[in-house]
Amino acid sequence: MSSNSFAYNEQSAGGEATELGQEATSTISPSGAFGLFSSDLKKNEDLKQMLESNKDSAKLDAMKRIVGMIAKGKNASELFPAVVKNVASKNIEIKKLVYVYLVRYAEEQQDLALLSISTFQRALKDPNQLIRASALRVLSSIRVPIIVPIMMLAIKEASADLSPYVRKNAAHAIQKLYSLDPDQKEMLIEVIEKLLKDKSTLVAGSVVMAFEEVCPDRIDLIHKNYRKLCNLLVDVEEWGQVVIIHMLTRYARTQFVSPWKEGDGLEDNEKNFYESDDEQKEKADKRKAYAMDPDHRLLIRNTKPLLQSRNAAVVMAVAQLYWHIAPKSETGVISKSLVRLLRSNREVQYIVLQNIATMSIQRKGMFEPYLKSFYVRSTDPTMIKTLKLEILTNLANEANISTLLREFQTYVKSQDKQFAAATIQTIGRCATNISEVTDTCLNGLVCLLSNRDEIVVAESVVVIKKLLQMQPAQHGEIIKHMAKLLDSITVPVARASILWLIGENCERVPKIAPDVLRKTAKSFTSEDDLVKLQILNLGAKLYLTNSKQTKLLTQYILNLGKYDQNYDIRDRTRFIRQLIVPNEKSGALSKYAKKIFLAQKPAPLLESPFKDRDHFQLGTLSHTLNTKATGYLELSNWPEVAPDPSVRNVEVIELAKEWTPAGKAKKENSVKKFYSESEEEEDSSDSSSDSESGSGSESGELGESGEERDSSEDSSEDSSSGQDSESESESGVQSKRAAKKNSKPKGKSGCEDGEKENEKSKTSESSNAESSSIEESSSDSESESDSESEAESRRVAKEKEKKTKQDRNPLTKDVSLLDLDDFNPVSTPVALPTPVLSPSLTADLEGLNLSTSSSVISVSTPVFVPMKSHVLLHRMSGKGLAASYYFPRQPCIFGDKMVSVQITLNNTTDQKIENIHIGEKKLPMGMQMHVFNPVDSLEPEGSITVSMGIDFCDSTQTASFQLCTKDDCFSVSIQPPVGELLLPVAMSEKDFKKEQGMLTGMNETSAIIVAAPQNFTPSVILQKVVNVANVGAVPSGQDNIQRFAAKTVHSGSLMLVTVELKEGSTAQLIINTEKTVIGSVLLRELKPVLSQG
Amino acid sequence: MIHSLFLINSSGDIFLEKHWKSVVSRSVCDYFFEAQERATEAENVPPVIPTPHHYLLSVYRHKIFFVAVIQTEVPPLFVIEFLHRVVDTFQDYFGVCSEPVIKDNVVVVYEVLEEMLDNGFPLATESNILKELIKPPTILRTVVNTITGSTNVGDQLPTGQLSVVPWRRTGVKYTNNEAYFDVIEEIDAIIDKSGSTVTAEIQGVIDACVKLTGMPDLTLSFMNPRLLDDVSFHPCVRFKRWESERILSFIPPDGNFRLLSYHVSAQNLVAIPVYVKHSISFRDSSSLGRFEITVGPKQTMGKAIEGVTVASQMPRGVLNMSLTPSQGTHTFDPVTKMLSWDVGKINPQKLPSLKGTMSLQAGASKPDENPTINLQFKIQQLAISGLKVNRLDMYGEKYKPFKGIKYMTKAGRFQVRT
C-alpha cells in the first residue's frame, strides 16, 4: 500500500505538469505534449485498476483522489464507466462519493449514466425513509433528459410518502425536474399543489421554494394554505422562513387593501415627523373606514418573533415584510433589529446598510434614534463607510446637524481620500437640504479649498459650484478665491467647475474673468477635454458680455478648437462660432445668443443615489444592484378593493369536518358527497389515512387543531398549549411537560379535554404510535410557534367566556362541541359566518378534483363502504378468544405493497388473556406479512383492534398463520376477496380512455348483465361496485357509462372497470387489466352483485 | 439558488470548486478578479458583483474568498448568511479554516458541502446534524482509518433531521455531565480627541458548552433581564417563555453553541473602563514628530484590565518610529505603517506608556490627520452592563450536572480618535 501511494505521489507531481500540457493539446498540435499526455492516461489507468479491485479500501482511495480532482476542476470524466460500476457498493462512503461523481458528470455521459438508474429506482422503494430520500435526491440531480418520466413518477410517489423528510426531498426534486424539462410544468404544479397542503414544517419551506421557481404567478394555490403557512412559519427551518416570508409579502400585496392612509408617505417626509406620527393615530381613530383583514394581521403578528432570529437573512426578510405590508405606524419595530445586524460581518453590513439607506430616505424617523450606530470607524471598509455616510445624510435634520457636521469634520481628515471626497459631497447635500446650515457648510468647504490634498480640494470646488449656483448673488468673494485656485488645481473636473462658475458670473467679476480666459487660452492645448469645453463656453460668454476686451482672445480659442482632435470640441467650436460671431449667413438665432448662453440655469438637485431604488422590493438582489435581476418578481400595488377574503377560509371548514368524530362522520356522509369528501381526505391523507380507527386519527389531528386555533385570532392560546403538552407526553418527551406545566394555569379545562382524547385514542393506537408520533411532535412545535403574547383585552374576555361555557356543561363535553367553540366566529369575526359547506364551495372542490387529472397513477382515497367483517377465529374454537378481520381500504403503513388488515380481538372468557401474538406463519411463495405488536393482555369482555399488513402478491391465495396466546396456538387464515387487493386511483375520463385503449385484447374481459332498470341508476351502481371492490369512481361525461379505476396493491397494475348501460335493462360490464386472472375473478364477483335486484 | 461555489485564495487561485446544478465554467471568476483588482484591498471587494449571465456573491474570511454563483433573483443576505455558515462549519470541523487545511481535507469538505445544499437550497446546516452524517476528522480517527480502512462517513442515518429538536443529536452520553456558560460583553465605542465618548454600546453574547446526557431541558434566568434591549436567540430557545417570563428555556444542542446575543439598551450609560492619553504631533518644518501614549484604567469595578493591545495605522508620511515602551513589546511595520503595541496587564500604580519620535518623509507636508488608535482589552469576571445570571435549572434528566458561569468584558470595536 505504501509503495503504491508513493508511486502516486510521483505521478501526481507529473500530473500537475500534465494539466498545463492538456490545455495545450486541446488547442495546439498534440505531438508536442504527447509524452505528458500518455502519462496522464497511465495515471487514470491506475485509478481504474483501483476501482476495479475487490478491496473496498482501494476503491475508496481511488474515489477520494477522483473527488480531489473534481474539486480542483480537473476533468475526470473518462473514468465514468469504472466509477459507475460502484454505485451499488455496500460501503457507504464509496457510495456517497460515487454519487458526488455521478451528479457531476452524468450530464456529459448520459448513456452510461442510465446504468445507474435502476439502483436508485430500487432504493426508492426502500423501507427506510432516509434511503428513499437520498435515492430521490441523487436520481433527481442526474440531469439526463431521458429519465424525465422516471423522475416524474418518483416525485409523484415521493410526494405522497408518509415520511415528511421524503416529501421535503420531493419538493426539492420538483425544481430540478423543472429546470431539466420545463414542459413538465403542469404536472409539477399539481404536485406542488398537493405538497402545499402538507402540514409538516419540514416540507413547507422547500415546497414554497418550488412554488416560487415553477409557478410564482399561481397565487391561487396559496389561498387555502395561507393561514397554515403563517402559523407554521416560526417552526420552519430558517432558510425556508426566508423564502416563505418573501412569498407571503407578494401574496399580501395582491390580496389585502393598503393599510397606509393617503398622504402617509408625504407626511413622513415632512420634517416634523414625531408630530405627524401622533396625528396619524388620531386620524386613524377618526377614520374607522379601514379595518385590517384578520389574515393580514395574522401575517404581521406571526412574523414579528422572527426579528429575533440569529439568521440575518430571516431578520431582513421580516423587515422588508413590515416595510411593504405593515401599517406605517408599526414599521418602527424593525429598526432595532436591523441595527443589530450591523454588528455582523462586512458583507451582511453592506446589504443591510443599503436597505436602511433606502428606508431612511422615505422615513427618517425610523432610524433617527440610532444615529450614532452609523458613525464611521476608521477600520470600516470604504464601501461600508460610504453607505453609512449616505444614511447619516438622510437622517440629518436641524436638530442633529451640528453634531453631524462635527462628525463630518473628522471624516474629511480621513486618510481614506475617497471617503473624504464622499464626505464633502455629503456636506454639500446637507447644506442644500437644511437651509439653516448652508452658510456654515459653505464656509467650511471654502476652508477645505486650502487643503493640501488635491482630491479634497477638487471635490470641494465641485460641491461649492453646485451650492453657489443656488444663490450666486452674495458670493463674489468666493468666486475670486476660486479663480486664484485655478493656477494650482490640476483635477479636470474642478478646473472645469471653476471655469463654468466664472463664466456664469462673469458680470460680477469683470476684471478677473478676461484674465482667466487669457491664462487658459495659453494652456488650451494641454487641457483635458472637459476643461476645453468649459474654456470655449467661458470665451463665448465673455464675447457676449465684454466683447471689447475678449474678442480676439475668443477668436483665438475658437481657432484652436477648430483643429482639436476631439470631435466634440470641434462641434462645439463650430456651433459657438455660428452663434456668436455675426456674419451674413447667421440666422435669427444669433440675436438670441446672449439669452441662450446666459440663461438662468436651474440649480442642480443634490439627491441621494438611493432615491430611485425604492421601486424594488427591499432585501432583494435587484435592490442591491439597482437593476432588475433575472427572475425578479415585481411587487404589485395594493388592490383598490380587496379580493374575496373567503378564499382562504376553506381550511377552517375542512378542519371542522375532520374534527367531527370519524365514526359519525362516516355514517353521515352519503355516497353523493363523494367528491368533496375525497378532496378533504386527500388533504389530510398524510396524517389520517394511515391510522385506521377514527380515534387513532384524531389524536394526530389534536395538535393540529391547536395550530388552527392559534390562527383564529382570539382563541385560547393557553388551552391549546395545554393540550399540546399532553400530546407531547404521549410521544415521550416527558421533559417538556414539566416545563410547560408552569405556563398553563388558565387552560385547565381545555387540557382535560385533551387528556380524555388521548386516553381514548391510546386504547386503539398502540400499533400506530410510531407513525402518529411524528405528527404529534410536529404539532407540538406548532404550539410554540405561536409566540404571541399581546394579551389583548378582548381576547382575555373571550377566553373567560369560553371557560365559563365549558364549566357550565362539563357533561356534554365532547369533541365536536369543543371544536365548534374554537372555530366559530373567532378567526374572522366579520367576514365569515359559521363554517358551513356552501354549495358554491362544493362546486369549487369538485372542479379541483376534476382538474387534478393525470395519466400517472396516483392513489386516491377510497369510497366509503360499510365495513365487512370476516371471522378469523371463532370464540368456540379459540377457547374464548374471538378474532375477526376486515379490510380498512387504506394504504398500508408497513409497506406500499401490503394490504392493510385490521384484526379485532375479543375476549369472551372471564379471565384475562395474555400475550396475544402471531406465531408461525405459513405463507405461499413471495407473500409477506407484517405482524401486529403483541398484545400484552386483554381484559375479560375487552376488545382491541390491531392492524397488520399482508402482501398478497396480487393473488387470492390464503395467508395462513398462527394466532397465539400465552397458552395456546390457533391456526387461522385470511383469504382476501379480490376486491380488496386493489387501491382506488384518481384519474380523468380522458386518461381512463387512454389507458383503456392500451389494455385491450387479452387484457379485456366483459359480460352482459340483465337487471331491473331501477338498479341501473348511477348511485346504485357506484354503491354496488365499491362494495365489492376498492375502486375509485372516474368522473364521467356520459350518463350511461360509469367508470371505475384502481390499481393492484402489489404490482400497481391498473384495473379499469366500465359499466355501460344498454337498452332494455341490460348493461355491459368490461374489465381491462394486465392481471387477467384477477380481472376475471373480479368480473365473476361483480356480475351477480350487479344483476341482483 | 446557489449554483456553484468557488474558493479563491489571496493570490487569486481557485483552489476548490463545487457545483450543485450544471457546471458553471470557472471563467466566470474573471469578473470577480477584475473587481478585486479595482478594489485594491480585499476588504473593499463588493460582496455582490453582476456579470452578464450570473451574479457573484462573495464573503471574505480567513484570507479566502468564498464566491457563490447564482443565476436568478435571490435575497442576497440568504446567500451571504449561508456562506458564513459554511465557513463556520469548516472552522467547527477542522479547528481552523485555511487554504491548506481545506486542501488536506478536500474529501470531507466535499461531503459536507454535498449535505449542506441540495440543488442550491440549504438542506442541513446544523452542525450537530452534519457531524452525525460526516464525522469531523481527528488525528486519532485518521490513524485508525488508514489502518482499518474505515471511513469518516457516519454509518448511522441522520435521524436528527427528522426530530422535533433538529439541533440536538440523539443518544448523547457523557460520564461527566457539565454545562458551562460564558457571558461575554463587548464594548463598541468611539472616543474623541478630548476623551469624551462619541458613541458607546454594549453587545453581549452567551456562549455555551453543554455536555449533558440524554435530553435535558434547561432554564436560565437573569437577575436583571430588563437590561437586555434587543436579543436574538439560537433556535432552541422557546420564544414564548422569554416573552412572558423573561426566562431562557431550551433543550440545548450538544457541544458548543451560541445561546443568545443581546444588545444593552442605549439609554444606559456605558462605563468606559479605560482611557488613553495621547500626544501625537507633527511639525511642518522638521522631519521629526513626537509620539506619546499612555493607557490607564477607569471605572473597572476593581477588576484588572488584561490583554491590552494598542494598534494604530500611521499616516503614509511616517517613515519610521523609534519608541520605548514602559512595558510590553511594540512593532512598527514600515510598509503597512501599522504600529502595534502589546501592553499586557495594566498596573494602576505604574501606568504603561509608549514614548518616542517618528521620522517623517523629508519634504512631505505634515499629514492632516492624526492616526486613530484601536484598543483591545479584556476584563475577567465582569459583565460591564451589570447583567447577572440568577440560576440555571435542569429538568427532564435525573443526574446532577456540573454548572459553571463565567463573565468577561472585552473591547469590541473600540476606537480613540486623536
From TrEMBL, chain B:
Any one GO cellular component localisation term in the record: cytoplasmic vesicle membrane
Subcellular location(s) per record: Golgi apparatus; Cytoplasmic vesicle membrane
Any single GO BP term: intracellular protein transport
Primary localization class, coarse: Golgi
Keyword annotations from UniProtKB, A to Z: Cytoplasmic vesicle, Golgi apparatus, Membrane, Protein transport, Transport
The MHD domain, residue ranges: 176-417
Keyword hit for Membrane: yes
CDD domains to which the protein is assigned, alphabetical: AP-3_Mu3B_Cterm, AP3_Mu_N
Membrane topology: Peripheral membrane protein
InterPro entries: Adaptor_comp_med_subunit, AP2_Mu_C_sf, AP_mu_sigma_su, Clathrin_mu, Clathrin_mu_CS, Longin-like_dom_sf, MHD
PANTHER family named among the record's database cross-references: AP COMPLEX SUBUNIT MU
Biological function: Part of the AP-3 complex, an adaptor-related complex which is not clathrin-associated. The complex is associated with the Golgi region as well as more peripheral structures. It facilitates the budding of vesicles from the Golgi membrane and may be directly involved in trafficking to lysosomes. In concert with the BLOC-1 complex, AP-3 is required to target cargos into vesicles assembled at cell bodies for delivery into neurites and nerve terminals.
Family, similarity comment: Belongs to the adaptor complexes medium subunit family.
Record protein name field: AP-3 complex subunit mu-2
